[in-house]
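job 3f2a | input accepted
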Amino acid sequence: MNKKELMYKENTPGYIIELNDVSKIAKTKSTETVLLQNISLQIKEGSFTVIIGRSGSGKTTLMNLMSGMSKCTGGELVVSNENLSYYSNSDLINFRRDNVSFIFQDYGLLSTLNVIDNIRTGIYLAKNKLLRSKVKEIITFLDLQNHVKKMPNELSGGQQQRVSIARALVKNPKIIFGDEPTGSLDSYTSFNVLQILKSINESGTTIVLVTHDPRVARIADHIIEINDGKILSNKSNKPLENFKKLFI
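job 3f2a | predicted structure (248 res):
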């Protein structure tokens, strides 16, 4: 098989992310550090998955592999029928552009652009123009219509995170990855952001969040617990429907 043939592999029906014996090793000239060791798991398409663990456990490393932000050292990683194990760095850039969006703890907004232009940066990353979401609808959905001309420093933390979510949505991604998306927010704002993410998930988008907050795991239907680069538990969960009481 040539490389192009190796790069395509169908996911098991019903699943969008699959890892088989995946490892990640950070190498320098004199040392090797095992960041993830022999990880095998599956994530269902349309699920709300939370990866939980303490700082340094490997949860962000795991998310970075799943999202194509970095390459695995060993094993097989298939996401949306693409075998990322064989992808070059430039291939991974194209994969991220076409398939995934990100929400970060620090919002990741461009300080020199106003709200509407920050959101539009997500559109510029979308390859298929016919599949681009309607910006006005997303702005209304996230209640940002009165803030479109404001600069990021004129917004609260919750408003900035909603802009970050809007930027993620305009790409029409198959998967949204969040790295501690409520980590910088107070409890009330965290609840509102998670409520938005639940609504997005209910529309069919797969959500994968990294967190150290056990409250966030209570709203997921799939929980992966990781420690020292190894999976401690990998289980389905019955999400708490009325999770407002966890935060407020």
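job 3f2a | DSSP finds nine helices and ten strands in the chain.
job 3f2a | closed
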